[in-house]
Amino acid sequence: MEKLSRPQLNRKKMNLEMEASERSGKDVVLLQDVAKGFGGNHPLFTNVNLHLAFGQRAAIVGENGTGKSTLIKLILGELSPDQGEVRIGSNVKIGYLSQQVFSDTKEKTVIDLFREDIPMTEGEARNTLARFLFYGPMVYKKVSQLSGGERMRLRLAQLMYQDNNLLILDEPTNHLDMDSLQVLEDALENYDGTLLAVSHDRYFLNKLFHKVYWLEAGAVHCFEGNFSYAEEKMGTAHHQNERVHNEEVQLKREKPTVKQGGSDSLPTRDKITPDYRLEKLESELKDLEEQISSLDLQLREIVDLAQLQQVYAEKEGLEKRWLEIFELLE
Question: Is residue 160 part of a domain?
């Protein structure tokens, strides 16, 4: 598949440069066997394991409603897990860019809100805000009058001058115009701290993040690679699961009626009829052997615990299917 790049435009000089404060410890975020739900018998997710080391750039992706924002809130300490443990490493200082920017401070002006947490004179603040495209009288506009993109730029200005070494970004590209978006990407690319982001923007994900946690069906799948790599691997897994399911359904449909007192196990080879597609089963057996061999090679190289567990589980599923077919052909 041809690799696509985001269109490049002539950029306004927003000049955003982001530097981390003093570095944190080696382990920045650690989730072990975490589960979370909101009533009922079906938790949002279970057995979540996530490890973020200093300097890593990880993305959390998945369909709406799978628990991405809940996972962020657990890391921020806004929620507590129902099971498992959430740990933040030593000397970790978090800067957070949420989707709901300044929802409680709409009546304050841009410059007043900026100076609340960042000590500088009015003149210094105006010069700084100009770098974020807030020129002249714009600094005296109320936050309630700002567009979504302008609010995001104001929050970025604050993050630039705050003391942090872990940036957590929740859909940061949603409201940015193309100029601001390109500058944000460049700034984050040069950020020397740790990044964790929730996003649906594939260009943003592929450019900046090299580790992906994919939330689906109550579980988290970890991939050491960019979004396109994770998407390919998830597609392969979906195809394999769908194929196994369809073949199991087909075998059930073709299963002969069991006489009273007989066994309801699959028939042995001497009882197989042409309808069982013997050649197809033998071909699948060979294919499964190749896949299992490939996973064995992967297991030798994997060092990430979550990914190791995932590959082991995938291998066990293939081996179970292999055994079923092998017994059928004996």
Answer: yes
